[in-house]
Amino acid sequence: MKALRFGRAAAVISVAALALTACGSDNATGEPAPGNGSAAPSEMGAAVSGTLTGIGASSQNSAMEAWRAGFQSLNPDAMVQYSPDGSGAGRKAFLSGGAQFAGSDAYLSEEELTSAMEVCGPDGAIDIPAYISPIAIAFNVGDISGLNLDAPTIAQIFKGEITTWNDPAIADQNEGVDLPDTPITVVHRSDESGTTENFTEYLAAAAPEDWTDEASGTWPTAYQSENAKGTSGVVQTVTTTDGAITYADASAVGSLGKALVKVGEEYTELSPEAAARAVDVATPVADRSENDLALDLQRDTTESGAYPVVLISYHVYCTTYDNQETVDLVKAFGSYVVSEDGQAEAEASAGSAPLSETLREQAQAAIDSIEVAS
Amino acid sequence: MAVDQSIQRRQSQLTRGKLPSYAVWVVLAASVVLGAALSALIGFSVVGWAIISAVVFVLAATLVTAMAEGGRKATDRLVTYLVYGAFILALLPLVSVLWTVLERGLPGLSHNFFFTSMNGVTGAVDNRVVEEGTPVLGGAYHAIIGTLQITFWATLISVPIGLLTAVYLVEYGQGRSLTKAITFFVDVMTGIPSIVAGLFAAALFGLLLGPGTRMGFVAAVALSVLMIPVVVRSTEEMLKIVPNELREASYALGVRKWRTITRVVIPTAISGIASGVTLSIARVIGETAPILVTAGFATSINWGVFSGWMSSLPTYIYYQILTPTSPTSPDPSTQRAWAAALLLIVMVMILNLVARFIAGLFAPKTSR
Amino acid sequence: MSTNSLKASTDRGRAGDKIFSGVSLAAGVLIPVTLFSVAMFLVVQAPPVFPADPETVTGGKGFAAYIFPIVVGTIIAAAIALLIATPVGILVALFISHYAPRRLARIFGYVVDLLAAIPSVIYGAWGYLVLAPQLSGIYTWLAENLGWIPLFEGPASQTGKTILTAGIVLAVMVIPIITSLSREIFLQTPNLHEEAALAMGATRWEMVRMAVLPFARPGIVSATMLGLGRALGETMAVALVLSPGVLSPSLIRSGNQTIAAEIALNFPEAFGPRLSELIAAGLVLFVITLIVNMIARIIISRHKEFSGAN
Q1: CA distance C60 to chain B (A)
Q2: Do the chains contact at C268 and A221, CB–CB below 8 Å?
Q3: Which candidate, A133, B26, B131, B322, has a CA 20 to 30 Å from the CA of B197?
Q4: Cα–Cα distance measured from residue B209 to residue B49, given in angstroms and rounded to the nearest whole number
Q5: What would the 3-class secondary structure string for chain C be?
Q6: How far apart are CA A127 and CA A107, in angstroms?
Q7: Which range, A329-343, B340-354, C201-215, is most confident?
């Protein structure tokens, strides 16, 4: 009797398992399978095939999912896989030949460029800007949705020198806003991240007198405060803590209040256009090959309408690959990412700021230069 | 004292020196009232009330027992309450965790979730879900397959090695210095941080098969490193408590040592071994860090454990929580993550049932 | 050959014996080999950090200054976890094996086994979504009323994401491990011993103390060691729950950090010297586990091990 009951349970389980294993589908969106004629042919002409492997920054993961989906619907035989292990891990894997491209929140250093020659040939690797995301300075203070803040004030808040929301330094810039006397709880990222690096770089450049630390991917230990892992972690913590402030990718902050950052004489609201504007006025990094589009952002820019707290995430490609198939695949994917369609897909999915027309053209030219190793 | 005596006078010879059964309830009621009063003094809260009442009750009941029945009985009663109390205390967070997972996971268990992968699901799709209220698309099918495959291979590697090691330690190596060394190393191995195990496996296969080798099997090896010590440790303990009389009886009948081990010793301990193996599977099936660096990150179905990237439920949960598919509207991702967590627990539950069933088939009848 | 079938069968048996003992020996030897390779992997990857210029190490004061606070943090978190989990775990195991009604006991045992399976990410998420907000009120109360004890020095964390919370989450994760193993061992206590004790008029507790616990002591230590291993090496849950910071004696302020969480938080973005720094931190954790285990071994060897196989 008992054995029978067990037998029946086992039968139910195995039938369930069988059903589970038999009916799975990769067609999650319920849209017609790619290649049915509904999809337009690739811009590069003939559709490419093969598997392209990338490892890198988790910041661009959401955009990457959009690019992969879009690219694969254009090229049904091609497969792009991307593991969001982190920028450092991505560059390491790329430089050791473990990935064909890397996603990175920072461009390759001189040292890394040199070591890239080992896997990529004498011309080394190139950085292509792919994903631009403004970093919001987000806070949870009553129902205040926007505050004017200049760089020194932001630096002092994040250093813990300004401790309440109704501090004169804040109030002076925000006349007419009813500021509570809630203590400020600073929340920063506990993990090393490109977001932290870009934010501290902004503080160090725009408020050099107040923020004396160098830009770094980890938060300076001297200013330790509350913190959380990942963008979703800091946003969650700020959402549930009254009086908290943090910095996070603009797309993720939802309904939190956002700071208007002082640039020149005016306060600039965060927007994709303002972010793209800041990228446009960035200067190319010196002493690089013409196809390397690494950019140094002008964090202390006075350019009107530019929002300088921006994260640029790059795709790092080799200048040469071993065989034609890989070259075709890399070019097709790279072109798709920087194309208008690709950037629009990323904007719809990840809330990123699209690359400007000029930058897209430069990026396309750089990708076109990729060739088979001779 | 007068009350005590009057109670005693009415009791028969047999129950003398024993508290009547209602005494406990009287003490309990008194403690609850006292607890309410005390907690009202320091600011009333239900939690404070419960804690104070419990403490008062345990103390009072012990004291009353000590006066009426003597010290030994009082100690016994105190320990009984402590055991029950510990159980309730342990149950609270555990129930809370289960409740959290159930509450947040159940809504996500849809047909889509079980039978589709995340292939092609982008942030735009999730945005539509939130804005237009369409059903959540995309599921964990690929991750389920990945978890089953990786765990299966990890078990296939770990259980034989772990079991045989334990057999060597208990049956062959008694008193040898190698045994002591192995036991010690097993202990050390339990402390390997999971991420280090993952990096080790990644580096090992990087050396063997070229840099950047990522596949399900590498993850299985990484998990084995974490799993083997758990299997060895639990199996060793179970083998040790098999009474020597059984072995001697078997030898006396002329049965070879290896037959004795496989036919007498292991079947006697099989229930505990199965429990240990289940525990070890449970320990690794939820591991995130080693899989992140060994199996890659896939959004589509991959059946081959020896080729291509693979996803697993823990990494699926991890990425859905930490890098939501759509950063602007993370709710669908969060829902998928909790559903996956619930599914993972259910999978282990089924595994556990199967392990117990198998163990039950082999185990000799005992009184328990 | 076929004239003496008895002899043939014993020969076959002898071969079986040899094979079986050989295979188990091989399996046993594989453990130190694996461990050695893991250690080698760490040693090969770590060294650039040791002679490095102190300036280049995170914190700017050399590796020792970098690693010391997180070593202490790791030990604090594991100690809190074990202080809570060991007694509770053993008592729960006793409850299931000797106190609970027989039929319920099976179900409870089953539930506890399940809890070992919840992925650490989920414990972490539970810790910071459910537990930490609950505890932050208690921490504020502790800071106000017991603030003079350095352990409870204020100001208390507003989010509740402290080392004490992390320790409690670790304890919750460790309890099922300790309980599950201890329970199996308690259940294997020879019935005759128990019945003899009860027949002598022992109370239930005296029976447990005199018959069950001595029998199970080495097993309990093993279970605790397994739990400790988990507590020391646990990565994801701590990374999610703890709001890390500089070393501080207060358990209710945000601060402190564990090695495993430090590695997990920084590894993805680590490159070059920072990477070998983190791997060196992993090596340190490895050494700590080694030392802790040595101490435990010494403690166990003082009591003669009880084994049916002796």
Answers
A1: 25
A2: no
A3: B322
A4: 62
A5: CCCCHHHHHHHHHHHHHHHHHHHHHHHHHHHHHHHHHHHHHHHHHCHHHCCCCHHHCCCCCCHHHHHHHHHHHHHHHHHHHHHHHHHHHHHHHHHHHHHCCHHHHHHHHHHHHHHCCCCHHHHHHHHHHHHHHHHHHHHHHHHHHCCCCHHHCCCCCCCCCCHHHHHHHHHHHHHHHHHHHHHHHHHCCCHHHHHHHHHCCCCHHHHHHHHHHHHHHHHHHHHHHHHHHHHHHCCHHHHHHCCCCCCCCCCCCCCCCCHHHHHHHHHHHCCCHHHHHHHHHHHHHHHHHHHHHHHHHHHHHHCCCCCCCC
A6: 6
A7: A329-343
CB contacts of A237 in chain C (<8 Å) are: 128, 159, 161
Q: Chain B: give the shortest CA distance to residue A28, in Å.
A: 5
pLDDT over 90 at B153, yes or no: yes
Tokens of C96: 């299931």
Q: Does residue A351 belong to the interface with chain B, where contact is any CB pair within 8 Å?
A: yes
ipTM: 0.79
Domain spanning A135-276 has what CATH number?
A: 3.40.190.10
Higher model confidence: residue C117 or residue A300? A300
B103: Cβ–Cβ under 8 A, 6 or more apart, which residues? none
List all residues of chain A from 170 to 199 with a beta carbon under 8 Å from chain C.
Answer: 185, 190-194
Contact B190, C225 (CB under 8 A): yes
C-beta atoms of A28 and B206 within 8 A: no
Sign of the CA dihedral with B291 first, then B292, B294, and B300 last: positive
Same fold flag, A9-133+288-294+315-372 and A135-276: yes
pLDDT digits (tens, 9 = 90+) for A212-247: 888 888 888 777 778 888 888 888 888 888 889 999
Scanning B265-324 for CB atoms below 8 A from A yields: 292-293, 296-301, 309, 319, 321-324
In this prediction, residue A16 has a pLDDT band, given cuts at 50, 70 and 90, of: low
Residue corresponding to tokens 């993805």: C268
CB C266 to CB A192 under 8 A?
A: yes
On whether the CB atoms of residues B123 and B327 are closer than 8 A, the answer is yes
What is the C-alpha end-to-end distance of chain C, expressed in Å? Answer: 39
Task: Give the gap in angstroms from C-alpha A308 to the nearest C-alpha of chain B.
Answer: 21
Asked if A348 is an interface residue toward chain B (Cβ–Cβ < 8 A), one would say yes
CATH classification for the domain delimited by A9-133+288-294+315-372, as one of 1.10.10.10, 3.40.190.10, 3.40.710.10, 3.30.470.20? 3.40.190.10
pTM of the predicted protein model: 0.82
- How many angstroms separate the CA atoms of B326 and B127, rounded? 7
Contact C158 A226 (CB under 8 A): yes
Of B84, B188, B204, the CB nearest to C293: B188
Q: Please identify among residues 53-72 of chain B the ones whose CB lies closer than 8 Å to any CB of chain A.
A: none
- Residue C94 neighbours by CB under 8 Å, 6+ apart: B83, C182, C186, C208, C212
* pLDDT tens by residue, A249-308: 888 888 888 888 888 888 988 888 888 888 888 888 887 888 888 888 888 888 888 899
Q: What radius of gyration do chain C's Cα atoms show? A: 24
The verdict on B211 touching A (C-beta cutoff 8 Å) is yes
- Peptide bond between residue A129 and the one before it cis (omega within 30 degrees of 0): no
A371 reaches C (C-beta below 8 A):
no
Each domain of chain A, given as residue ranges in start order, spans 9-133+288-294+315-372, 135-276
pLDDT tens figures, C258-304: 888 888 888 777 777 777 888 888 888 888 887 877 777 776 666 54
Contact B297 A23 (CB under 8 A): no
C-contacting chains (≥3 CB pairs under 8 Å)? A, B
CB-CB neighbors (< 8 A) of B353 in chain A: 9
